[in-house]
């Protein structure tokens, strides 16, 4: 590094309903990064407005030609982008494609992987082909709702079931449907977030989530968190308004813990992931482990799952982030 600090952009905001959550993740990351090793700036993206927060409390526009900006008349170029956008354009491959074009290293997986994991229905079908257990599901596209009847959904998926936006990074638009009469309003609600809606079978069991990252030298499987909520499911209020108990490490056997870890590592490799990801699962009473979702830009506030799991593992989040950044330059 020639004793020069790398300059890092924490890229947040985005165009989804979780804009505010992304800003909180950025603040968390800013507090975690090693300032002795890196010059760190928060870059906020909202539509075509891209701005960097300067140290004096003001903002200045980003030059989209090369993702640079000027501070006190001096041109500043970034060495690395840490993406913490939940939803488009940071979780679906769009921003990754831009960074590929300007040759700027970034924290997430590549364009294809981000696009794949962003579409829950496509991801489920893809991972199923590798033997990963997932819930039964079907897809409904806006304008083609009549192709799948309520009776067909009940027959193929069963009740209760979940109706959720298929291609969206947020917790909005998700409904637990208990009878056929609730399907149409639930589908309309989900379509306010995404033009494609996934109807997914309900899996009963213990909900857990596990973080992982890999570098060229090591695999770091973080302790598993058990998610317990009195809400109907792990919805927005449970996730962000404290209506949940998060128990780390999860109250599951060593044998189950080992099996989950192997699946988590396997999925990371199948998808050729990069950086920290988090995978959610349901474990049935019989011990069947089913994958629910792959989060490639997991929340990074002080109380989010990943920082919790890092603390439970006895690791320093500052060193973890340094590991992830430096792996791009190794």
Features:
single chain, 330 residues, alpha+beta, 10 helices, 29% helix, 26% strand, globular
Brief description of this entry?
By secondary structure, this protein is of the alpha+beta class.
Number of strands: 17
Question: Ranges with pLDDT <50 over ≥5 residues?
Answer: none
Q: Proportion of β residues?
A: 25-35%
Strand count, sense and barrel status of the largest sheet are: 6 strands, antiparallel
**N to C succession of SSEs:** EHEEEEEEHHHEHEEHEEEEHEHEEHH
Distance between the termini: 11 Å
Shape designation? globular
pLDDT average, as an integer? 92
Radius of gyration: 20 Å
What does this structure look like?
This protein has helices at residues 19-32, 94-101, 111-118, 120-128, 150-156, 183-191, 236-240, 254-270, 305-312, 317-327, and strands at residues 6-13, 38-46, 49-53, 59-61, 69-71, 74-76, 80-83, 137-141, 161-165, 175-177, 196-201, 206-214, 219-221, 225-228, 245-247, 277-283, 289-295. It has 330 residues and is an alpha+beta fold. The strands form four sheets. Strands 12, 13, 14, 15, 16 and 17 form a six-stranded antiparallel beta sheet that branches. A five-stranded mixed beta sheet has the order 4-3-2-1-7, covered by helices on one side.
